[in-house]
């Protein structure tokens, strides 16, 4: 039995923006005779190249990638602002899109009038707009400026109002492009609450953001666009981890001139030779019980004397969600000299992780972040617990009860 039709279906979507140049003419007569051919094609810019994916109803999809990777073009295709040069894009249900600051607002008229006009354009009736008007204004926080022309609004006010209208239009599919980047903390909190409401109501959300932590937190799935192509599609944590690894490798190469191989990048001026997880007795282990003492040991070798160095450790789930991270600079330590071989140990008196498998990163780098040796996913270990639980934290805990409650022995 087949499942429900996708809310979004993108098949081989390609978008090429043409470049044109004006022809030169030797005479006025030749120019007049060539009016219909006064522009000639000069190739084009491929903004999106053969992208295919589907989004199920009720799914939250994050879209990540560097500037110029095709994220905004993809959203414009989904919103039918532009048409694909090749391929197809289909969206089922009522769609609301917030792609640019104040997009669609008339600058000369008031916020009040723009709410009414935009609501009608999104498919609401006048009665529905009136019923939701106060909620939109309160959500956007523009009560004092409601009757002022939108051209007097700050960029933050405009985007808050645009998001508020879109969010209250009861869309089946909501497209959002970096809406939280211009809002204050209170607005960001309201927007995230609205995202949660959409998820509980079975709405579909496509969310573009450079805030990778927010993508992992709010979206179960993500796609990564790279120079217009689909580089990865999968669990948000895994896609974000792959993207971060690429960015770190490119940044390390830019800073040091040395390309990374696999999960290891850096200049090699200092290198991490050994990484081990130790139990309370100093024995190497790959499995620990939640709450037990543990240590992370690194054996480091510096090929030349260094006065600028930082040691770091990060623990994450295997899907890429960061659980804990620290380094010597954050702990207030400032390096003076690192030369030859050295042993570095991070002691953790109680490893209160929930049961599961975790990945550990180890690094030695300069204070400005330039890596000498960054080893991603250098080892994995398992945490067990006497009692089952969900999440990544397993604190000491105890239940208490009173009143008419009785438990079986």
What portion of the residues fall into strands of 2 or more residues?
Answer: 35-45%
| Element pattern in H and E | EHEEHEEHHHEHEHEEHEEEEEEEEE
Low-pLDDT runs of 5+ residues are 35-41, 256-261
Q: What number is the mean pLDDT?
A: 83
CATH architecture of the largest domain: 3-Layer(aba) Sandwich
Q: Whole-Å distance between the termini?
A: 46 Å
Per the CATH scheme, the topology name of the largest domain is Rossmann fold
Total helical segments: 8
Number of domains: 2
Main sheet: strand order: 5-6-7-3-8-9
* Rounded Rg: 27 Å
Helix content: 10-25%
Shape: globular
Structure description:
- With 409 residues, this protein is of the alpha/beta class.
- It folds into two domains: 8-27 and 35-243, Rossmann fold (3-Layer(aba) Sandwich); 264-384, Coagulation Factor XIII, Chain A, domain 1.
- The protein contains eight helices and 18 strands.
- It has helices at residues 28-33, 71-78, 111-121, 126-140, 155-167, 185-200, 212-218, 236-256; strands at residues 8-22, 39-55, 60-64, 86-91, 95-98, 173-177, 204-208, 221-226, 229-235, 264-265, 270-278, 287-289, 294-306, 310-317, 322-327, 338-348, 356-365, 371-384.
- Strands 5-6-7-3-8-9 form a six-stranded mixed sheet, with helices on both faces. Strands 10, 12, 14, 15, 17 and 18 form a six-stranded mixed sheet that branches.
- It is globular and about 70 Å long.
């Amino acid at each position: 039995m087949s499942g429900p039709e996708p809310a979004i279906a993108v098949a081989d979507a390609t978008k090429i923006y043409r470049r044109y140049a004006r022809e030169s003419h030797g005479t006025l007569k030749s120019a007049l005779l060539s009016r219909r051919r006064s522009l000639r094609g000069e190739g084009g810019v491929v903004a999106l190249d053969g992208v295919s994916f589907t989004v199920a109803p009720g799914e939250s999809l994050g879209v990540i990638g560097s500037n110029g990777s095709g994220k905004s073009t993809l959203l414009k295709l989904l919103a039918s602002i532009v048409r694909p040069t090749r391929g197809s894009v289909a969206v089922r249900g009522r769609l609301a899109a917030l792609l640019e600051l104040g997009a669609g607002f008339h600058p000369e008229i008031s916020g009040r009038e723009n709410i009414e006009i935009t609501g009608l354009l999104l498919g609401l009736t006048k009665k529905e707009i009136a019923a939701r008007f106060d909620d939109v204004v309160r959500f956007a926080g523009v009560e004092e400026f409601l009757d002022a022309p939108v051209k007097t609004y700050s960029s933050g006010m405009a985007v808050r109002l645009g998001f508020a209208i879109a969010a209250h239009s009861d869309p089946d599919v909501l497209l959002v492009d970096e809406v939280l980047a211009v809002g204050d903390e209170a607005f960001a909190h309201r927007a995230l609450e609205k995202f949660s409401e959409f998820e509980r109501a079975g709405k579909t959300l496509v969310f573009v953001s450079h805030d990778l932590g927010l993508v992992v937190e709010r979206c179960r799935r993500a796609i990564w666009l790279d120079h217009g192509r689909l580089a990865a599609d999968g669990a948000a944590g895994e896609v974000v981890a792959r993207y971060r690894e690429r960015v770190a490798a490119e940044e390390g190469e830019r800073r040091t001139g040395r390309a990374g191989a696999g999960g290891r990048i850096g200049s090699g001026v200092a290198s991490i030779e050994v990484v081990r997880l130790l139990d309370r007795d100093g024995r190497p282990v790959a499995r620990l019980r939640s709450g037990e003492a543990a240590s992370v040991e690194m054996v480091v070798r510096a090929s030349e004397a260094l006065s600028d160095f930082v040691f770091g450790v990060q623990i994450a789930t295997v899907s890429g969600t960061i659980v804990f991270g620290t380094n010597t600079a954050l702990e207030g330590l400032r390096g003076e000299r690192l030369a030859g071989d050295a042993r570095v140990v991070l002691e953790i008196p109680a490893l209160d992780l929930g049961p599961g498998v975790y990945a550990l990163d180890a690094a030695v780098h300069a204070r400005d972040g330039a890596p000498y040796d960054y080893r991603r996913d250098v080892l994995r270990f398992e945490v067990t617990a006497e009692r089952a639980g969900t999440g990544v934290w397993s604190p000491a805990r105890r239940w208490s009860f009173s009143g008419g409650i009785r438990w079986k022995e």
